[in-house]
From TrEMBL:
Residues 29-115 form the DUF305 domain. Pfam families: DUF305. PANTHER family: SLL0788 PROTEIN (PTHR36933). This is DUF305 domain-containing protein. InterPro entries: DUF305_CopM-like (IPR005183), Ferritin-like (IPR012347). Keywords: Signal. Residues 1-24 form the signal peptide.
Amino acid sequence: MIRFLSLVGAAGLTAGVALFPAQAQMGHGGHMGDGGASHSYMQAMKSMHDGMAGMELTGKPGVDFALMMIPHHQSAIDMAKAYLESGEDDAELTRLSEEIIAAQEGEIAFLKDWLAKNRQ
C-alpha cells in the first residue's frame, strides 16, 4: 500500500501550510471575530487534510479516488453547515449551502456503496 504522505513529500507539506495562511492569522482565539464560522471552515479543511494524509492508498485509481473524495465532500458539508449556523442571512448562500449538503451527502453515500462493491 502507498501512503498518501509519501506521494506528496516534504514539498507538498510545505505547500499545504501555505494554503492555510488565515489559520496563522487567527491567533490564539481560534476565530476571526465572525462568531466562529471561519474557525469552523478551517477545522473542516484540517479534518479533510488529516484524513487524507493518514489514508493508505491501494494503487487502484477508482478505489483511491473514492476514498479521497469522501473526506473532500465531508469538508464541503461541514463548511456549508458552519455557514448556516453562522446566523448570516443571505438567501443565495443559504440556498447554496443547503444544496451542497444534500448533493455531497448523496455523493458520499454513492461512494461508500461503490467502495463496498469494488474495494476488493
